[in-house]
């Protein structure tokens, strides 16, 4: 949990150090259930540091740990994260497949906390596909859902949101972005 606090305060190095320590404790105890949290945090840190191969490997390990425990909702969250890694690594088709699976799962299983993340992923893809107006509308939807739910994005996804918003404001203007909201 201290690693999560560190990442939320922007201390990636401290976060990584704490997550490695937690992972070592889990492995010493031989309890793979205790590995889930640290592996996820290490994957998120690798993603935020722009280390796609390490992030891909760690998210795959995190997915396997969650699947092994029968935690379908948590598997989908990691698939969302892996989708961003794939997108950043240039595998747009794989990212699209993962993101569509996330949105479908959230809707079919009523995982409300996942909804804004799935919409954000769709906004990123819309921009990638050259549909800036669609991306603006989807980003406004993310903002609306977050506001209604009293929810905030995780730090790595907040970075995605902020970067996308900045690009859209630069290309579409603040007025157009505000209109989408």
How far the N terminus sits from the C terminus, by CA atoms, comes to 34 Å
Number of H- or I-type helical stretches:
10
| Overall geometry | globular
Could you describe the largest sheet, including whether it forms a barrel? Answer: none
Helix content: over 70%
Number of extended strands:
0
N-to-C series of helices and strands: HHHHHHHHHH
Q: Summarize model confidence as the mean pLDDT.
A: 91
- Low-confidence segments, given as residue ranges, are none
Q: How big is the Rg?
A: 17 Å
**Beta-strand residue fraction:** under 5%
Structural class category:
mainly alpha
Question: What this model shows, in words?
Answer:
The chain is an all-alpha fold and 181 residues long. The protein has helices at residues 2-8, 12-29, 32-48, 52-68, 72-88, 92-109, 115-128, 132-149, 155-172, 174-180. It contains ten helices and no strands.
Write a compact overview of the structure shown:
The protein is an all-alpha fold and 181 residues long. It has 10 helices and no strands. The mean pLDDT is 91.
Main attributes of the structure:
single chain; 181 residues; mainly alpha; 10 helices; globular
What layout of secondary structure does this protein have?
Blueprint: H1 2-8, H2 12-29, H3 32-48, H4 52-68, H5 72-88, H6 92-109, H7 115-128, H8 132-149, H9 155-172, H10 174-180
């Amino acid at each position: 949990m201290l690693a999560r606090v560190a990442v939320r305060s922007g201390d990636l190095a401290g976060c990584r150090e704490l997550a490695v320590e937690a992972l070592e404790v889990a492995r010493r105890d031989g309890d793979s259930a205790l590995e889930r949290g640290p592996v996820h945090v290490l994957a998120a840190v690798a993603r935020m540091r722009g280390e796609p191969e390490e992030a891909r490997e760690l998210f795959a390990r995190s997915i396997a740990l969650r699947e092994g425990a029968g935690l379908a909702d948590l598997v989908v969250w990691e698939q969302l994260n892996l989708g961003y890694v794939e997108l950043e690594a240039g595998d747009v088709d794989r990212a699209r497949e993962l993101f569509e699976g996330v949105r479908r799962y959230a809707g079919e299983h009523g995982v409300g906390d996942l909804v804004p993340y799935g919409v954000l992923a769709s906004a990123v893809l819309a921009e990638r596909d050259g549909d800036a107006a669609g991306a603006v509308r989807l980003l406004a939807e993310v903002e609306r859902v977050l506001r209604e739910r009293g929810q905030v994005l995780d730090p790595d996804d907040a970075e995605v949101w902020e970067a996308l918003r900045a690009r859209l404001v630069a290309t579409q203007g603040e007025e157009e972005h505000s209109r989408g909201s």
